[in-house]
Amino acid sequence: MNNKKKKGPERWLKPRHAVVKKILVFVLGIYSALRYRIRVKPLGEKNERQYLILFNHQTAFDQFFVGLVFKRPVYYLASEDLFSNGFVSRLIRYLVNPIPIKKQTTDPRAVINCIRVAREGGTIALAPEGNRTFSGQTVNIKPSIAQLAKHLRLPIAFVRIEGGYGVHPRWSDVIRGGGMSAGVSKIIEPDVFSAMSDKELYELICKELWVDEATAYCEHPHKKQAEFLERAIYYCPECKLSRFESHGDLISCQKCGLTVRHLPSKELVGVNGAFPYRFVAEWYNAQNDYVNSLYPAKLDDGVLMEDEVTLSRVILYKKKEKISARATARLYRDRITISETDEEIAVYPFDKVSCGAVLGRNKLNIYIDGEVYQIKGGKRLCALKYLNLLYRYKNVQKGNEDAKFLGL
Known about the structure:
The chain is α+β, with helices and mostly antiparallel strands. It has helices at residues 15-35, 62-69, 87-96, 108-119, 144-152, 164-167, 190-193, 198-209, 280-291, 383-397; strands at 38-41, 52-55, 74-79, 99-101, 123-126, 156-162, 180-188, 235-236, 240-241, 244-247, 250-253, 259-262, 268-270, 305-315, 319-331, 335-340, 343-349, 353-359, 363-368, 371-377. Helix 5 (144-152) packs across helix 8.
């Protein structure tokens, strides 16, 4: 008779996570203050308890800023891309064990892991936007966040990160001057939000995490003010769908020559004529409005955009397999194709693509037939245009012509 007891699942929380946390707080606290000039306000609780931390997402370093606010180890939800980089991913898992989640898809496994971490006594943190802002304004938050919060029944701590867009815009490679701040803006207890409807809680979450950096309250000096803004912008008020190129503090339309200067105050001014938008957020929103006015079936069936890219297949939570190191991505009204010289090696019809996601500054993940493919281009690639046209097509095909969500 076998009397051996079956072992349960291995604990998510490890004692080493607390040690790693102390080391990171010391090292990253100094780095953050010097590099980002951030003012972090620690929570200040003597015996800090568990929380569900919800924060707005402005920079690639936000998770570290959030970690400086809280004493306990924090377990972050992180996109699958972080877990598909071989040894580096395994090291991150060992040190801090984040909770993996598939971007832009319903991921029951992520919810189960959140419940598991909560039951083990862990504090969980996530950015409900699921994306860093390209414009300085908080982007779309899914209503399902309210259901997750109610299910976990942890006190909700809202962390507001402000000034991050001015210091390090998602589309930029450089960190600018100025400063930013991070701290808890509000805490809601479970007995309070459990009495709310899902809609009421969702609206409260959106309100607490709304940040609009389309203001000129602070200057963020750097000589490369506009460089790589074309990662976020592909709409010209004169030419409509276009291609831009930036250098220093200038960005220009490659079709009509419209040139715009990006000032340290984040304001935009026309160089060779009047420009209708004062901030990138206004330009970005006009771009979205234009795409949402399109009917893909009425567009020409020719190439709308094309870029030199690499193509990889993502083996989720393991690695990436390179399919082509040098290819051409072409955007059509209803599909994306990938070619080497004159031969098509992949076609992604929008009818078959389940969803897409922009990762980092200029990577595009395409989810199709149970597989994930990643398109990555040069420094000037605007992955956003592929994503936006994909979602506009799907919205129209579903009969949701008035839908505003374009994948971000």
